[in-house]
Design brief:
This protein has 2 domains: 9-39 and 314-424, Alpha-Beta Complex (Aspartate Aminotransferase, domain 1); 44-279, Type I PLP-dependent aspartate aminotransferase-like (Major domain) (Aspartate Aminotransferase, domain 2, 3-Layer(aba) Sandwich). 38% of the residues lie in helices and 16% in strands. It is built from 14 helices and 17 strands. It has a 7-stranded mixed beta sheet with strand order 4-12-11-10-9-5-6, sandwiched between helices. A 4-stranded antiparallel beta sheet has the order 13-14-17-16, with helices on one face. The longest helix has 30 residues, at 306-335.
């Protein structure tokens, strides 16, 4: 597998102004990426440029409105390249959670007799709550078990939960709580065999692996730009045939055509401009450091745009850099007495997000002490509250979570491990 150039960490880190921060004279080490990455200068510039040269509402007959329309149009193309979709299958919204609530309400207006919805114990609440809320509308919710020893979905239970009454299946691509990557392509196929619609939460996975909505045959898929170097906006993909017929709640002044039909009110235009540039940042990594073939069978497709090919290559370059750091962190954390790591077995697909506990110490106390030394980690349930409840950790403060991004260094990992060893004594 050919690489253009060796991974240039200095080139990457120089693009992130936040990395110059310090806490109590300690340089900041951002292991908080699973809750949102830092933002490269080019994304900041895109937001700034929008507000200077294109700041207007859409659909006007003057320059800045024309510019604004073009920014949104180009962003749909960029996010389509990111997800392997068509531009008219990409919509934007306040965040993934709000978009999913809008989707859930719209789908209740679809005709049909099926009344069962399948969710899982491993999912983020944003792909559970909107569906659980439909119980008051007469829908039955069936919850698939998570194996608490391996933090993986019980596939036998999943198959058993599917039936001729299943209307919709809500799954996550990867667990933001423990990093488990789920077998979404197989699970979507099984759901479709049962005649169900699928809604995939790809918020956590989006930074950690290539997404091809056509290959996995997702009906709807959601992600958030702030998890992959962009601003705080949500993105939804809808399969054209379904999206076009979605009976979304909207004002009569709102377009009834996909993808606009789910975009209520004025969008966050500057955020959309930033999200588009975040995709360009990943594509730039692919051009500079990525393999010519991403190795997943996707980048050789003849119908692929050049940017899409570079995005896939950039994702691969990030994964190749992060994997040995994640393996080191997993190995060393697992060897510290009093530390327990939660997540899938070593031979199971996972992201570079690692969650753990320290015996006798609450997660919030650990995160606070680490934070005082410039080591930024998350604590609690990270909105994957059902997972933390099933692990019986909610009362003790939940998990400590550290995630790797393409700007983290081995020296930062060593600092984190040394402090955890100190706290575990």
């Amino acid at each position: 597998m050919h690489q253009n150039r060796p991974y240039d960490l200095e080139y990457i880190r120089n693009q992130f102004p936040a990395l110059a921060l310090s806490v109590n004279s300690y340089p900041a080490a951002f292991f908080d990426g699973p809750g949102g990455t830092q933002v490269p200068q080019r994304v900041l510039d895109a937001v700034n440029d929008y507000l200077i040269y294109s700041n207007a509402n859409a659909g006007g007959k003057f320059l800045t409105s024309h510019n604004s329309d073009l920014v949104i149009k180009e962003a749909r193309k960029a996010l389509a390249d990111f997800l392997g979709a068509r531009p008219d299958e990409i919509a934007f919204g306040q965040n993934m959670t709000t978009l999913n609530y809008q989707l859930a309400l719209a789908l209740t207006r679809c005709p049909g007799q099926r009344r069962e919805i399948v969710i899982t114990e491993i999912d983020h609440e944003a792909n559970r709550g909107p569906w659980l809320a439909l119980k008051e509308r007469g829908y039955k919710i069936r919850e698939v078990r998570m194996d608490t020893e391996t933090c993986t979905i019980d596939m036998d239970d999943y198959r058993n939960k599917l039936s001729g009454d299943t209307f919709l299946v809500a799954l996550n691509y990867a667990s933001n709580g423990v990093g488990t990557i789920n077998s979404v392509e197989e699970m979507i196929s099984l759901a479709h065999q049962a005649g169900a619609i699928t809604v995939i939460d790809a918020v956590h996975y989006a930074l950690h692996g290539p997404i091809d909505v056509k290959k996995i045959a997702a009906d709807y898929l959601l992600c958030s730009a702030y998890k992959f170097f962009g601003p705080h906006i949500g993105i939804i993909y809808g399969k054209k045939a379904l999206f076009s017929e979605l009976p979304a709640y909207r004002l009569r002044t709102q377009s009834g055509l996909a993808p606009n039909l789910i975009e209520t009110g004025t969008l966050n235009h500057e955020g959309i401009a930033g999200a588009s540039e975040a995709v360009e940042f990943i594509a730039d990594l692919g051009r500079r450091f990525g393999p010519s073939d991403s190795g997943d069978g996707l980048s050789g497709r003849k119908d692929m745009t050049e940017r899409r090919r570079h995005v896939l290559s950039g994702m691969k370059a990030m994964e190749q850099y992060e994997r040995p750091l994640a393996e080191k962190m997993l190995d060393e954390l697992s060897s510290i007495q009093g530390v327990r790591v939660y997540g899938p077995p070593r031979d199971y697909p996972r992201t570079s997000t690692i969650s753990f506990t320290i015996e006798g110490k609450r997660a919030d106390r650990v995160a606070s002490e680490l934070g005082q030394k410039g080591l930024f980690v998350w604590d609690g349930h990270f909105y994957a509250i059902r997972l933390v409840e099933k692990l019986d950790l909610q009362e003790s403060g939940g998990l400590i979570r550290a995630g790797l991004c393409p700007y983290n260094t081995e020296q930062e990992v060593d600092r984190l491990l040394e402090e955890i060893k100190r706290l575990a004594k």
